[in-house]
């Protein structure tokens, strides 16, 4: 992570934005930022690693996959400026965890309530497919984020199997007791993991974190109906409720 270990979320976000550890990803993100998409030809792309987004005392952490080439790699904010973000932020707003349903650019006034969004890989990868080596090299940032959020974290929503597989070993490294064999990813799956310094029991111990699985909000899932707005809203509502956040009731 370099000579200095981030001691705050703000320090972490700054360090992430300056990361150049993966040559392939650095070359790709900068190539995209230079060539641009025709619809965004007049915009200045972020073109760097994208830090997490949300408060430093979040009770809910959402873990995605990686920034989109013309979404977060363009705007500099997770899930901002693309179709996946349209779905995610609309759902967060619907359940009361965001102040507005849209996320178009970094200064659009969006605020999350008790929720932070991150990813196992912080650079846009070619074909949206980071390698295992790139995922593992980027693990230090997720490790630091979990360490800094540990005092307030109650729920983790994982969008997709890639994030699930990346997250479990980092949680274990940070002291949480993960069931063995590893719990399998699935939409609607919920798993309690015992917090560091507590013993497992029949009921969740103080500080226990609950994992919530959800299909990723990618167009591949949302355009085909594999993931509907109500499905992602239900997962977010359950995660927010478990974390003690104020959430809106499901529509009748």
Automatic annotation (TrEMBL):
The keyword Nuclease belongs to this UniProt entry's keyword annotation? no
- Keywords in UniProt for this one? 4Fe-4S, DNA damage, DNA repair, Hydrolase, Iron, Iron-sulfur, Metal-binding
Domain (Uracil-DNA glycosylase-like): give its ranges. Answer: 51-236
Q: Which Pfam families match?
A: UDG
Keyword flag 4Fe-4S:
yes
CDD domains recorded: UDG-F5_TTUDGB_like
Family in the record: Belongs to the uracil-DNA glycosylase (UDG) superfamily. Type 5 (UDGb) family.
* Name by which UniProt lists this protein: Type-5 uracil-DNA glycosylase
**Which species is this UniProt entry from?**
Rhodococcus sovatensis
């Amino acid at each position: 992570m370099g000579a200095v270990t981030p001691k705050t979320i703000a320090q972490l976000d700054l360090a992430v934005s300056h990361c150049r550890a993966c040559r392939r990803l650095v070359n790709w993100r900068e190539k995209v930022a230079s060539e641009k998409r025709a619809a965004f030809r007049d915009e200045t792309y972020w073109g760097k690693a994208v830090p997490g987004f949300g408060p430093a005392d979040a009770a809910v952490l959402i873990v995605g996959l990686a920034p989109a080439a013309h979404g977060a790699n363009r705007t500099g904010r997770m899930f901002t400026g693309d179709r996946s973000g349209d779905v995610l932020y609309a759902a967060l707003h619907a359940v009361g965890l965001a102040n507005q349903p849209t996320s178009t650019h970094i200064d659009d006034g969006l605020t999350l309530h008790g929720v932070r969004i991150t990813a196992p890989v912080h650079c846009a990868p070619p074909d949206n497919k980071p390698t295992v080596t790139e995922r593992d090299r980027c693990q230090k940032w997720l490790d630091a984020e979990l360490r800094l959020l540990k005092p307030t974290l109650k729920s983790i929503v994982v969008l997709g199997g890639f994030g699930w597989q990346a997250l479990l070993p980092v949680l274990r490294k940070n002291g949480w007791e993960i069931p063995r064999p590893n719990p399998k990813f699935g939409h609607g799956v919920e798993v309690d993991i015992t917090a560091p310094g507590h013993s497992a029991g029949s009921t969740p111990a103080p500080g226990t974190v609950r994992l919530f699985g959800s299909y990723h909000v990618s167009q591949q899932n949302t355009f085909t109906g594999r993931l509907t707005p109500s499905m992602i809203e239900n997962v977010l509502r359950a995660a927010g409720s478990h974390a003690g956040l104020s959430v809106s009731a499901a529509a009748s």
